[in-house]
Structure formats: structure tokens, C-alpha cells
Amino acid sequence: MNLYSLLQSCAASGNPVRVGLIGAGKFGSMFLSQVPTTPGMNVSVIADLDVPRARAACKAVGWSAERISATLFCDDAASLIADVNVDVVIEATGHPAAGLKHAGLALTEGKHIIMVNVEADVLAGPLLAAKFRKAGLVYSMAYGDQPALTSELVDWARAAGFEVIAAGKGTKYLPEYHAVTPDDVWQHYGLSADEAAAAGMNSQMFNSFLDGTKSAIEMAAIANACDLAAPRNGLAFPPCSTDDLQNTLIPRANGGMLDQKGMVEVVSSLNRDGSEVPRDLRWGVYVVIKAPNDYASACFSQYGLPTDKTGQYAVMYKPFHLIGLELGISVLSAALRGEPTGQSRSFNGDAVACAKRDLAVDDMLDGEGGFTVWGKLMPAVDSVKLGALPIGLAGGVRIVRPVAKNAVLCWDDVAVDADDPTVRLRREMEAAFIS
Hints:
Layout: H1 3-13, E1 17-22, H2 26-34, E2 41-47, H3 51-60, H4 65-69, E3 72-74, H5 77-82, E4 88-91, H6 96-109, E5 112-115, H7 118-134, E6 139-141, H8 146-159, E7 163-171, H9 193-198, H10 203-210, H11 213-226, H12 245-248, E8 263-268, E9 285-290, H13 294-302, E10 313-318, H14 328-337, E11 349-355, E12 364-366, E13 373-379, H15 380-386, E14 395-399, E15 414-415, H16 421-433
Parallel strand pairs: 1-2, 1-4, 2-3, 4-5, 5-6, 7-8
Antiparallel strand pairs: 7-9, 9-10, 11-13, 12-14, 14-15
Helix pairs in contact: 6-7, 7-11, 7-16, 8-11
């Protein structure tokens, strides 16, 4: 609770935390908007494939002309990572292969990295995090994003002596969303294609939030950071209000819907008929805990904590997350404390590719949020045993044998270059964590 005091010391000494941002999209721009009001932290370099767009983003979020002119802009992430004026690298490209490459460069250059790129983290994050720890560097999830905020709740619960029964987030979900494509995504957000284009919204990115892919990726990240289990049959997305989390997200033997205790799950803000769940958790995160004894259970009741009918299970939740507006917490925690705000330490969960339609030989996969695949959460041990294709590798590859709609794609279903650095790193992680 002294992060701000440490930041003030940086400001007073004239030695700010120096940040390099890779990717000035929505998440990056939200972070940039907070920089002028965070004395003691300075963004010295910004790398983006579209440098004029990055400059425009800085202006749009309120940067002064003086601050913009004092910042180095480039289109080369490698030069940013190697820059002596960068202490902490933020990877916010959203591209799995790019994220893994940039993490490797940061490791070589001895720089901390904040991995906004959850897609890259799920693809090989546990292996990378172990390498960063060995080098005495921080590899961290991005505070403000739901995986880091959920990890914080889990850490709080365990450090306070509670058993974690379930953890996860909320989202808007219906089963038919798995088949939604970028062509029809905006009707589900109440927007026209023209309105979305005017707002600069990317249809494939927003579709990944709707079709279940982003939920699978984020729950895999939470399972790996918090040593929690992934459901064997994928996420169930039960409709659930904040008033009912402690009743629903507990084991079946106790009246809930979980296969076992210690699992990740996502709750839906929509009932299966499409009606809205009252007091939903669409934008938030939660942890369900169990009292270690009758005394603690009695305290739950005495202090107004909602519990199930036994009084043993209770919930803590955060109703909102502010994405990049909160990202500075990760930067400062890494630079000033040497601590991550969430970090993959095991390989429990995996996000794999499923066919959105019947796929034929020579069809090209277009990745997360596209027309061809959606992402499903699986236990990592099952994924590796099956030979399932990670969603992070399901873009720009060709189908070599037919795959039925909703079937899990396997490595043998696609033409993959075994010598590709991203593929090799993923294979290295599988060998390191799954015997």
C-alpha cells in the first residue's frame, strides 16, 4: 500500500520510471491518458507500425505538444526494447507471435515486461515467466485487465487463509455467439457497421469478446497464474447475478455447478432466452471462498458477507475493470517492487481452436475473432494429449484435412511450420510442463 509513496520519491529525485510502449491501440491509449497525471513515470519511447496514428493517439488522450515532442516514436519494437531509456516494456500488440518475440528480446536486454498480450501469455507464458524469474526480471500480467484483477482477488483470499473454490469474470454470452463472425458482430453490440467504423472499432477484435474466444484465453491465463483447474468440457457460462455467485460457483455436491473445487469459470450477463440477468457481473471479476472453520463462517454472517445456505461459501467481487487506465499499477509494481501483478506459473489451462463452420482442405484459418475458428478452454493436459491446436496459432495456416463444425482442431489438421520460432517456443513449453 505504499506504491504511491515510492512513485513520489521517483518524482522528487528526478529519476522517473521509464516506460516503452509497444502498440498504441485502445489499451495502450488508455494507459497513455494517465501518464500526464502520474508524476514519477515517463513514457520515453512508443513503437507502433503506424507512427502517425500513435502520435495522433497521444494528442487525442490529452498529451501536450511538449510531451509529444519529447517522446521518441518509432515503428521498430526491437529498437524500443534495446533503448537505454526504457526500464519497463509494455507489450500491447495483441498479436501472439509478436508478443512472444518481444518478450524474448526484453529478456535478452534485461528489461521487465508487462504482457497486455494475453494471447501470447496463454500460448507460452508459463515458460517465459520461468525464464524471466531465473534472470531476476519481472514478467507480469496487465493490471486493469480481468486476469490480473482476478489473480489479485485469489492472492488476497489465499493470503488471508481462505480456500479458493472458484474464480473468474463476467461477460455477455449466449451459446449461439460461438458462430458469430465479424460480418454480423455489431448487431449484438447495438451498433451499425458505420457507427463502429466511425468509432475506430475493429470488428474481429470485438468479435473475439463475443464468440467466447477471449473468455477462453483469459480463463486459461487465470488458471495458469492461480493454479486453478479448467473445466474438462469447456466453460459453461452460467447465467448468474452478483447475488448468486456463492450459490452457483461451488461444487455440485454442495448445490452448485462446478465439477470440483478450485476452478475457473465465466458467468453470463444474459439468461439463455436472451433476457438480462439482474445485477450482472458483465464488467467485473470474482472469487468464491470457503470459510476454514465455523468461527470464520460465523464472522461472514456477522459482517454482512453474502453466503450460501450453509454459511460456508462466500464471494468477493469487483464490479468493474478499467483496462489501460489501471495499467500503471503493473509498471510501477515491476519497476519499484520487483513484483508482477499476476504471472503464469503453471500450465493448467489452454485455449484451443474450434471450427466455426465445416472446414475444407485448403481453407485458410483467420485466427481469434474471425470467420473460421473460436477459442475453447481445455485442461492443458487434455489439450496436449489430444494434440489440439492453440488458438494463438490458428491464424494464417491452411487446413489439410476436413474438420467438422465445432470440432477441436488438431496440429495434424493444419500445415504448420515446425521451424517457426513461435511454434518451437510453444512446443518447448508443452515439453517442459506436460510429461
